[in-house]
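User: I'm curious whether this sequence folds into something compact or stays loose and floppy. Could you predict its structure so I can see for myself?
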Amino acid sequence: MKGLVILVVIGFLACMGFWFVMNEMSKDPGKPIAVAFGNAKGDKIEMHVVVQLAEIKVEPARDMLRTGNWQQQWVDRHFALRTASGDLVPMVWCTASNLVNENKVGGVVEGYAVAKLKPNTDYVCDYVPLVSESKRYTRGFTAPSEKQEAKRMTFAPATEK
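Assistant: Here's the prediction. I'll summarize afterward.
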């Protein structure tokens, strides 16, 4: 009987351990998005956010194809860059970047969302993979004062819309 109780306790602990591991593995790790900073002019520095073809394929711009600038409309729908005080910073679609080496970024680069920022200022960038869903990813950062090569920043899942 004592062996049976020990076996039940061990089985219970194993089930709880399995449940904990599966719960941790099913959490959303966030979205890694490559970002580069540079082209400082005066009191502004550019931020180039790499837009991968796979991100555009998640929610294609079929309804925007009738207009001539569907890429800009896609950026406006899927990215929101704000200052720490909540002011919206415009992001402009560009097809090329002199800050990003596409061979090092990985994947197929479709283009770039470019914003002009004030160095040493705090910003928050939101990425929405599907506009029809409430899920979004967010990342807070401080704009650097000098050039930084493209590196992947992890945008963490956000709960509110």
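Summary: The chain is about 25% helix and 40% strand. Residues 30-158 form one domain.
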